[in-house]
Amino acid sequence: MDIINQQQHRELIKILDQLIxxxxxxxxxxxxxxxxxxxxxxxxxxxxxxxxxxxxELKSLENExxxxxxxxxxxxxxxxxxxxxxxxxxxxxxIKSNDFLK
Length: 102
What we know:
Blueprint: H1 6-29, H2 33-51, H3 55-73, H4 81-100
Helix pairs in contact: 1-2, 1-4, 2-3, 3-4
């Protein structure tokens, strides 16, 4: 079993925590279905991530997040700093995960 180290694992969890926090703040200001869906999936992702460290399993999570991001969530919900932060955190996760899982 090929696993990522604990520091990398914590860093990925931190990124998803920040993503969820950002979405929660956004949902207080905007009642948008995309945000509700995005929050629900982000919570599923972090639950999976917290339970897994195997690179192969985490690669499947990265692929799922990439698919969701590029096919669904890379849309502006609003023209705000928070929305820019939301999309930026997803990009950061994908890039970091890809780097860690090489």
